[in-house]
Amino acid sequence: MNEIKNIKCSEVTQNELKFAVYHTSDFLPFMQKLNIPHRHNYYMILLNEKNTGSQLIDFKESPIEPLSVTCMYNGQIHQWLDFDKIEGYILVFESDFFALRYQNYQLSEFSFLTYRHKQPYLKIAVEKFERLKSIAIWMLNEYKNNEADYEKSLRSLLNLLLIDLNRLFEPIPKNTEFSQSLQLVHHFEELIDKHYKQKHFVKEYASIMYIRPNYLNSVCNDVVNIAAGELIRNRILLEAKRLLIHEQKTVAEIAYELGFEDNSYFGRFFKKYENITPDAFKRKFINTSQFYQI
């Protein structure tokens, strides 16, 4: 078993823009290169128009169907499985590309680009797909023609695409009070993603956010129906499973990396929420997965 390879955005975009858009036919060489498990340090959106395929995203096989959208966020483990016949468009980008134009408007505000969505995947109606496709084609033309202010145009088009996708993933209209609470949860999730290896308790995050732990927990329950502590645990467990499966590290090394000084406590923590020990989880996945062959 080889260690997981971290793929930089520049390896896929082949530029310093931290953004690229491709027709799948042009992206095929990258798919062939990345048909082994790899970790993204970028976001990826696949708009598939025709034919079928499959991919592995964080231990689960995900279908690629006609008129479907797949969104992947920074840090996920990915592997292309069946991909040579799909037809559509692929966007890859870093948060920095987006933030250069929208400084106070972070990608974390789009919940389908966060770890809370286990696998953001949708099949959508033809007319909705055609709208997304039209934006992708516009982006592709801007990207290829490289005319004046094309970077600004690409950021604006990306924002438009993300807003449309958000309407599909989060179709319920939000009132002002709910939107403010949602923004707080997004900020909390950003902090978790940044500090989960060092900070394991709600009170630590509440302190950074200058709010009471009980209030933070109440907002999380109201907005996403998940307790604040569970959001933290879910992020720690997700990374633990990634490391167990894809890295050549002992359980003790993984426990230390995730901020557990006591290896046995990490084992109890993992078993309590996954109903299996870390070692048993690793053996079970590798023995039963037909995809994890490098």
UniProtKB/TrEMBL annotation:
SMART domains, sorted: HTH_ARAC
Entry keywords, A to Z: DNA-binding, Transcription, Transcription regulation
Alphabetical list of SUPFAM superfamilies matching this protein: Homeodomain-like, Regulatory protein AraC
DNA-binding listed as a keyword: yes
UniProt entry tagged with the keyword Phosphoprotein: no
GO function terms (MF aspect): DNA-binding transcription factor activity; sequence-specific DNA binding
Residue stretches making up the HTH araC/xylS-type domain: 186-284
Coiled-coil ranges (or none): none
Protein name: AraC family transcriptional regulator
Source organism per UniProt: Flavobacterium psychrolimnae
